[in-house]
Design brief:
The structure is a homodimer of 135-residue chains. Chain A has helices at residues 5-20, 28-35, 39-51, 76-84, 110-124, 129-133; strands at residues 55-58, 64-67. Chain A is mainly α. In chain A, strands 1-2 form a two-stranded antiparallel ribbon. Chain A binds a DNA duplex (30 and 30 nucleotides) through helix 3.
Chain lengths: 135, 135
DNA sequence: ACAATTACTACCATTTTAGTAGGAAATGAG
DNA sequence: CTCATTTCCTACTAAAATGGTAGTAATTGT
């Protein structure tokens, strides 16, 4: 039931960009130093966030990343789901379009798990990046 | 953010005992067959539940396990936490008696994570074993 | 005595996590 | 135009966690 470093680091990157960015491009080198996260690992995480459209990037000297939107427009849940892949507590909750678990007919717990998935997502979706910065 | 097989299997064992037990001792062999879970793996999980006092056991022929209480007295959250170890989304939330994360002074997210921990535990604690059986 | 069952402990293959590593492509500065 | 700096892309890897297997001792009813 743990959030991996990818999820935690992703939030820290977003918080860092929101706090120190001010609309300018920030190099990963700087974020890496401030947040004490290996730059090569950061690259991978930021790449995912970038492809998802949450960041703007620029190469070359003076390059870096910046937020694509303002902090209150980022939903923490969206960011976490993007880098973590999925947050469903059990696999069957993630099943789609008609696929069902082989045990589904005798399963007593599916509604319990779906409910857990719901409260988790509802909670993390109730936070924006701005909320985190203001802590 | 996944619940491991230990947690899922533990719930299925408890549900099985509640459904087929009727106060009698049920051998793991039977539960293993009904639930299609390897008996040797079940032994480990059930051992944890037994040591926690949730089950009564008897050795020898006609031996097995039975619930130590009635289904409505079991809290699903308690069972899950017992077999899964901890359910905290990030390590620092589990810290106790004064131990703090080295980043705690610059951390914006601790309250967010604590809140997540709370909604998860509150939800799973709102279910009893009886609730699951009645699904 | 013996078959059936729990109790205990060690081991192990696979998957996931948390990185490392190397180089290509782009970009601004000089 | 060249060079330092930075993102972009892909492959690799050590360590930990997961999901079991395996063997054997102890207990109990028949």
């Amino acid at each position: 039931m743990r959030i991996s470093t990818k999820g935690r680091y992703a939030l820290r990157v977003m918080i860092d960009l929101a706090s120190f960015g001010n609309g300018n491009f920030i190099a990963l080198k700087d974020i890496s130093q401030r947040q004490n996260i290996p730059i090569k690992y950061l690259e991978q995480i930021v790449s995912t966030l970038n492809k998802a459209g949450y960041l703007n990037s620029m190469r070359g000297s003076n390059g870096g990343y910046r937020l694509a939107m303002s902090p209150e427009e980022y939903n923490v849940g969206t960011v976490l789901r993007t880098v973590e892949g999925t947050l469903t507590p059990v696999e069957c909750v993630a099943y789609e379009n008609g696929v069902t678990c082989p045990r589904s007919d005798s399963c007593n717990s599916i509604n319990f798990w779906k409910g857990l998935d719901e409260v988790v997502n509802k909670y993390i979706d109730s936070y924006t990046l701005k909320d985190l910065i203001q802590q």
